[in-house]
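Q: Could you fold this chain for me?
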Amino acid sequence: MAEQDILPLLSRIADALDRLAPPARPTGDLSAADAFVWHGDTLSLAPVARVAHVDYDLLKGIDRQKVLLLENTSRFARGLPANNALLWGARGMGKSSIVKAVHARVNRDAPGSLALVEIHRDDIPTLGRLLEVLRASDRRCVLFCDDLSFSTDDSDYKSLKALLEGGIEGRPDNVVLYATSNRRHLMPRDMIENERSTAINPAEAVEEKISLSDRFGLWLGFHACDQDSYFAMVEGYAAAHGLDLTVEQLHAAAVEWSVTRGNRSGRVAWQLIQDLAGAAGKKLG
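A: Sure. Below is the predicted structure, expressed as structure tokens.
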């Protein structure tokens, strides 16, 4: 056989062997840390030594959301029934911060009782492999997906629907899902309207797309804050980090900062504190 014929043959043999080889086993030791990041490309859990989080008591203007999520998470950590949670609404109002803060608070009160496992939006197709790892452990796990949303031709939402309720195995008893999104139904309004206008049965087409959000038992809405709440955020951060400014100085700086950003939110308040601390030559611990 000529050399030019052998190389294609060897390539086809290699491809066939790859298809016959068993899939890689997902790996991860849930006793290694209190927080992890799932890497879908390597099917592995990477421990996070220190979670960047805001203290629970410093989160202002979202008191009801804090209480509800802490209660739900505390019950789950104690082995009691708890709901999956969808945190939706305005940008910068603490949706992801509250998840990390609640996780830290629960583990402060009951050390090691709860693992936080973050899965990135792009790794949703490997969700089933992650559940293999989590299901095999006795540890209670909050599966966290930040900034979750889906586009028109995206079918990855079906993986989440199976996790939330619809699959044969269902959600493992030791796993609860917390997701954040700027969209209440996890997809843009124009996409929903397009489904209604082009489908043979508009109601069924839309229902298929938005039914994912209905499978979250706990919905927490986050809305743009008023000026008093914004001031409370700034004052709380300044006091916690020892910034030597009067209330009047803080309020004046806060107003000017929010005007330049065209927005008031927890994120904007924290960015102001970073600016003030930097100008004062003070490090934020």
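A (continued): The first helix runs from residue 3 to 20.
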